[in-house]
Amino acid sequence: MSEKQQILDYIETNKYSYIEISHRIHERPELGNEEIFASRTLIDRLKRT
Q: Superkingdom, according to UniProt (predicted)?
């Protein structure tokens, strides 16, 4: 499988997880350069990858 196909498969498999994360971040707006919840949420998700 090509690298491009692996990336496309990863996106397809995980897109709903990232959509859900974007909704959670949108529900909790934070001031610029003080995005504690947003950064923690994304870091936690990426560590599980």
A: Bacteria
Q: Which two tokens stand for residue 8?
A: 């496309």
Q: How far does the chain reach from its first CA to its final CA, in angstroms?
A: 19
Question: Is residue 30 within 8 Å of 47, Cβ to Cβ?
Answer: no
DSSP state, 24? H
Query: Which SS3 state, helix, strand or coil, does residue 11 take?
Result: helix
**pTM, 2 dp:** 0.74
Whole-number pLDDT of residue 1 = 86
Question: CB–CB of 29/41 below 8 Å?
Answer: no
Domain ranges of the chain: 3-47
